[in-house]
Amino acid sequence: MSSRKITVAFFVMAILTLLAACNAPPPGVAPTTVLATTAPTIAATLAPTTAPTTATVPTSTAVPATATASILTLTDSAGRKVTLSAVPQKIISLAPSTTEIAFALGAGDRVIAVDEFSDYPAAVKTLPKVTKGFDLNYEQLVALKPDLVLGAGITSKDVIKKLEDLKLNFVIVGSEKTTFATIKDDISLEAQALGAPDQAKQITSAMDSQLAELQAKVAKAKTTPRVYWELDATDPAKPYAPGPGNFIDDLIKLAGGTSVTASAQQPYAQFNAEEILKADPEIIILSDASYGIAPESVKARPGWDVISAVKNNKVFPIDDNLVSRPGPRIVLGLDAAAKLIHPEVFQ
User: Fold this and answer.
1) Which of 70, 172, 198, 265 has the fewest CB atoms inside 10 Å of its own CB, making it the most exposed?
2) Does pTM top 0.85 for this prediction?
3) How confident is the model at residue 154 (pLDDT cuts 50, 70, 90)?
């Protein structure tokens, strides 16, 4: 399985995990056993991604970390109190987002292992992997003797309990309700744990500057087109899409669009195709392009030929790695989305 397919699988499994934990589905959505038991099937062929963006990835100028530091106690995103007696020198990351943040902070040389889904930056690909699929190898993890383990908001309570039982320092960064704005807080939290607060300020400042530049361009747009952002259409009759209260919904708004699925009762939800047809999106963005979901296959779905986006050839794939990982590259994701929704302001 390619790294891109794995990344998409990771994100969709995250969504399914979150959906399984919710008490009630959104209106018109019937419960389905796939939420608690299986990940979507991933197609063998890949759709093309959008052209590379000219925006830059916010990074920092790192300073060498030392093993000595005063005792630090912090509260992670899961509300857990974590005490660190020194700046961690051996870090293991269990999510692509926390991996990317660590490297952006200049702490990549201290990352000794990662999860199977982490594939950016390139240096990550040569690191040992402590997961196979979604299963964590606890024996390998303990043998590596990490000073700190980084997990994301999708890390299960069972995994957290096991790591705490193993007496490992463990920090959760982010949650299922992570928004575009709180991603900066997540970067600062991880920086606090890694002893790199100044580096975090450099990164978040660069993100703010890029956001301001993009907002100035989007402000020139004269419309707010209806956008359907597809996360997973393993079952085209019941696709997954972002609801309110998450960073993908924020991407649509910040890029100058109006999400046709924003009325859902969950951050990530499953919809009936009829709901999408009725909403008549003017633009369709496919972050499930790595499953092989191409504009042509969307146009071929029964009944979808009446949708404005289909009729006007405004069905676009997008690089899911940029828009599914809540880290410094999310500004690149926003840039890519804005260019699809309002290409006229970038000309």
Assistant:
1) 70
2) no
3) confident
Distance CA 210, CA 218 (A): 12
4 versus 59: the higher-pLDDT residue is 59
Cα separation, 270 vs 243, in Å, equals 9
Question: Which of these, 173, 175, 174, 149, lies nearest to 163 by C-alpha position?
Answer: 149
Q: What is the β-pairing status of strands 91-93 and 81-84? A: unpaired
Q: Which residues contact 294 (CB under 8 A, 6 or more apart)?
A: 47, 48, 286, 317
| Beta carbons within 8 Å of 34's beta carbon, 6+ residues apart | 16, 40
pLDDT at 323 over 60: yes
- By CB atoms closer than 10 A (0-12, 13-18, 19+), residue 22 is middle
CA 185 to chain centre: 15
Question: Are the C-beta atoms of residues 227 and 285 closer than 8 Å to each other?
Answer: yes
Say how far apart CA 251 and CA 227 lie, in whole Å.
11
Strands 91-93 and 148-152 turn out to be parallel
- CA dist 265 and 262 (Å) reads 8
**CA proximity to 100, closest of 169, 187, 174:** 187
Say how far apart CA 88 and CA 292 lie, in whole Å: 40
For residue 90, pLDDT beyond 50: yes
Q: Tell me whether residue 162 is exposed, middle or buried, using C-beta atoms within 10 angstroms of its C-beta: 0 to 12, 13 to 18, 19 or more.
A: middle
Higher pLDDT, 47 or 69: 69
Provide mean pLDDT across the span 149-176. 93
CA dihedral of residues 212, 218, 222, 225 (deg, nearest 10) = -130
Average pLDDT, the chain: 84
Q: Summarize the confidence of residues 223-237 as an average pLDDT.
A: 96
Q: Where are the alpha helices (DSSP H) in 50-165?
A: 96-104, 138-143, 157-165
Q: What are phi and psi of 227, to 5 degrees?
A: -120, 130
Residue 140 · residue 120 · CB < 8 Å? no
